[in-house]
């Protein structure tokens, strides 16, 4: 689900179009809402409410009975619906392998490559500071 949530809706849609999709219907039309984002003082201290973030959610029912749910940050209704469809397909014995191989695995590979490029660019600009200790005093 994290791979789908971090991918673009156009990428997910393009991968799904290449597959034979099962019959499905929308149980919950995509809608927007808010969630509270929480933080921790110093990273591991007491919790505090940082603020609210907009999310979109949807639910899809396959003709075989599996129900999938999709949530994503922002107001992307189509992405929430596509994530819900992938979730439902991943629960089906008939479509689980196909959705993993045709949709999730390629998106995961692209996401890892993008992160690696960003890490390499960041590492190239790294400056190491050091302090020389003088023998005085």
Short description:
By secondary structure, the protein is α+β, with helices and mostly antiparallel strands. The protein has one domain (2-112). It is built from four helices and three strands; from the N terminus they run H-H-E-E-E-H-H.
Q: Could you characterize what this model shows?
A:
The chain is of the alpha+beta class and 137 residues long. It is built from four helices and three strands. It has helices at residues 2-6, 9-17, 77-91, 96-124; strands at 24-40, 47-62, 67-73. A three-stranded antiparallel sheet has the order 1-2-3. The longest helix has 29 residues, at 96-124.
Distinctive features:
single chain, 3-stranded antiparallel β-sheet, 4 helices, 3 strands
What's the layout of helices and strands?
Blueprint: H1 2-6, H2 9-17, E1 24-40, E2 47-62, E3 67-73, H3 77-91, H4 96-124
Antiparallel strand pairs: 1-2, 2-3
Helix pairs in contact: 2-3, 2-4, 3-4
The number of strands is 3
How many separate domains make up the residues? 1
- Calculate the mean pLDDT score and round it: 92
**Low-confidence regions:** none
What class would the helix/strand composition place it in?
alpha+beta
Rounded radius of gyration (Å): 21 Å
Main sheet, how many strands, which sense, barrel? 3 strands, antiparallel
Report the total helices: 4
Strand order within the widest beta sheet: 1-2-3
Shape descriptor reads elongated
**Cα distance spanning the termini:** 59 Å
Helix content: 40-55%
Q: Report the β-strand fraction as a percent range.
A: 25-35%
Instruction: Spell the H/E element sequence.
Output: HHEEEHH
């Amino acid at each position: 689900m994290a791979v789908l949530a971090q991918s673009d809706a156009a990428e997910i849609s393009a991968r799904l179009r290449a597959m034979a999709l099962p019959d499905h219907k929308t149980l919950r039309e995509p809608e927007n809402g808010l969630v509270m984002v929480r933080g921790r003082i110093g990273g591991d201290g007491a919790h505090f409410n940082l603020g609210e973030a907009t999310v979109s959610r949807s639910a899809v029912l396959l003709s075989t009975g599996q129900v999938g749910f999709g949530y994503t940050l922002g107001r992307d209704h189509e992405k929430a619906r596509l994530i819900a469809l992938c979730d439902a397909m991943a629960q089906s014995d008939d479509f689980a392998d196909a959705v993993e191989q045709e949709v999730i695995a390629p998106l995961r590979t692209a996401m890892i490559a993008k992160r690696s490029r960003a890490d390499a660019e960041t590492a190239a600009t790294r400056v190491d500071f050091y302090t020389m200790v003088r023998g005085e005093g």
